[in-house]
Design goal:
Oligomer: heterodimer
CATH superfamily of the largest domain in chain B: P-loop containing nucleotide triphosphate hydrolases
Distance between the termini of chain B: 31 Å
Distance between the termini of chain A: 55 Å
Strand order of the largest sheet of chain B: 5-6-7-3-8-9
Strand content of chain A: under 5%
Shape of chain A: globular
CATH class of the largest domain in chain B: Alpha Beta
Helix content of chain A: over 70%
Number of helices of chain B: 9
Radius of gyration of chain A: 21 Å
Number of domains of chain B: 2
Largest sheet of chain A: none
Chain lengths: ~230, ~230
């Protein structure tokens, strides 16, 4: 690292923009995947249909699907001649969010579904004995497993912020546009700039820590408010 | 409450009650061995289970008037206070401070209302579940082996609460218990179940001291020491 490290580093790699892109992408992909994943998990737990076991198995498979495969699939869907080419999302943040949603939704859905299968029947029975209506019962189920939902979302966010393969393929790692912190680290490594890569990695981990702390603080406040 | 031709098949087990009447405002005791269908009947009455066939005539009562408390109560992951007022909350009733304090004091939980409910002892959890079931003044209460594993003082407390509530505004109680002393002390009617059938009903005097059905005689003979010895 030379004396002009910071000015050079900020400019060359587009660090500030990569932080901005990372935050936007992980926030929106986690938000959309959380809404979809929790809703699908509730629907899956409530419904009985012939291929339910197969659907659950497919979802579990997708939980561990290689991001680069999802990235390739997303790219093929979003490219100009692809079925979703009209959206014009290839090499944009929207396209990266699209790919991330495909990766994270099964994770959140699978985790929440597992909690629901274990907890929902007894909560439902309890709510019934208390005279709760179906809407109150569903609300109670969500309240009772809110911590588990929270951990599922945090896991999804962790996957989103650390992912490289899919965002590389769909976003194209374009400087000041679709370069994220992880793809920037990958680029730095390719150029042999290991120290800069580690520096960016530390910033990435600090960001994850700050987001986690904020989420924990909000969660704690909610829990304390509810106590009395 | 009238039951007509109630059937429920669960694997090998089949509950079948051709006809039964549970008089309103009375305390009914349900006795019988393990696996006789007592809890299945309770779940059918409260609506957790649906019958395969048959009807239950609640005589005007709705789901909002009926409640049940079990041996392993479900407590919400929140404070004692929030657990207690939950039935009021879902009925959009503002919890009155004196009412809440009255019930907490009854159960000896007045100093624990801000405590996390799941950190209570199992006996205290039972008490909380019991007063939570009563705070909204239900018309039919099913008590499913709630008194099991409780110390004598707690059993006495439950019994006194039941009798006190009964004297204020008659509730129809259905108490499922193996504690025949408790059944004998509290109940107006006793019903004996075996193999998914309601074999005999009668007053505690008829059922516990002068049983006529061979299965009831057999059931009581097994509990001779624990029951007759304490009377």
């Amino acid at each position: 690292m030379n004396n002009g490290f910071f000015s050079e580093f900020f400019g060359t790699i587009g660090m500030l923009d990569s932080i901005r892109v990372t935050l936007i992408m992980s926030f929106f992909s986690t938000l959309i995947a959380s809404i979809l994943g929790v809703s699908l998990a509730i629907l899956l737990e409530r419904s009985q249909f012939p291929l339910k076991k197969l659907v659950i198995r497919i979802n579990r498979t997708l939980m561990g699907a290689p991001p680069v495969v999802i990235g390739l699939l997303s790219y093929m869907l979003l490219r100009k001649r692809g079925p979703l080419g009209f959206l014009g999302w290839v090499f944009t943040i929207q396209g990266m969010v699209f790919a991330q949603v495909l990766i994270i939704t099964p994770i959140i859905c699978g985790m929440v579904y597992t909690y629901l299968v274990r907890q929902a029947p007894k909560i439902r029975a309890f709510a019934h004995t208390m005279g709760a209506n179906p809407w109150q019962t569903n609300l109670l189920i969500l309240q009772e497993i809110k911590n588990e939902i929270y951990f599922s979302i945090v896991s999804g966010y962790g996957r989103s912020i650390s992912e490289v393969g899919a965002v590389f393929l769909v976003g194209g790692n374009i400087k000041n546009s679709t370069r994220t912190m992880t793809t920037a680290i990958s680029t730095l490594k390719g150029a042999g700039d290991y120290y800069e890569g580690v520096f960016l990695g530390i910033i990435l981990m600090l960001m994850a820590f700050v987001v986690q702390t904020v989420a924990d603080t909000l969660r704690k406040e909610v829990t304390e408010d509810e106590n009395y | 409450m009238k039951i007509t031709d109630l059937k429920r098949q669960q694997g090998e087990f089949c509950l079948h009650i051709p006809s039964a009447t549970f008089e309103t405002g009375k305390i009914h005791g349900i006795i019988g061995g393990n696996g006789s269908g007592k809890t299945t009947l309770a779940k059918l009455i409260i609506g957790i289970l649906s019958p395969d066939s048959g009807t239950i005539d609640y005589e005007g009562l709705t789901q909002q008037d009926i409640t049940m408390t079990g041996q392993k109560p479900y407590l919400l992951h929140t404070s004692v206070y929030q657990n207690l007022i939950y039935p009021l909350k879902i009925r959009h009733i503002q919890p009155q401070k004196d009412v809440v304090e009255y019930w907490l004091e009854k159960a000896g939980l007045q100093h624990k209302q801000t405590q996390y409910a799941l950190s209570l002892s199992s006996g205290e959890q039972q008490k909380l579940s019991f007063i939570r079931a009563l705070i909204f003044q239900p018309k039919l209460v099913i008590v499913d082996e709630t008194l099991s594993n409780l110390d004598p003082d707690s059993v006495h407390l439950f019994e006194s609460i039941m009798l006190e509530e009964q004297s204020k505004h008659p509730i129809t109680w259905m108490t499922i218990s193996h504690q025949l002393v408790h059944i004998s002390k509290l109940c107006d009617q006793v019903h004996f179940m075996e193999g998914g059938q309601l074999l005999q009903s009668g007053t505690p005097e008829q059922m516990l001291y002068h049983p006529t059905h061979p299965s009831v005689i057999q059931y009581l003979s097994n509990t001779e020491v624990s029951f007759k010895g304490r009377m």
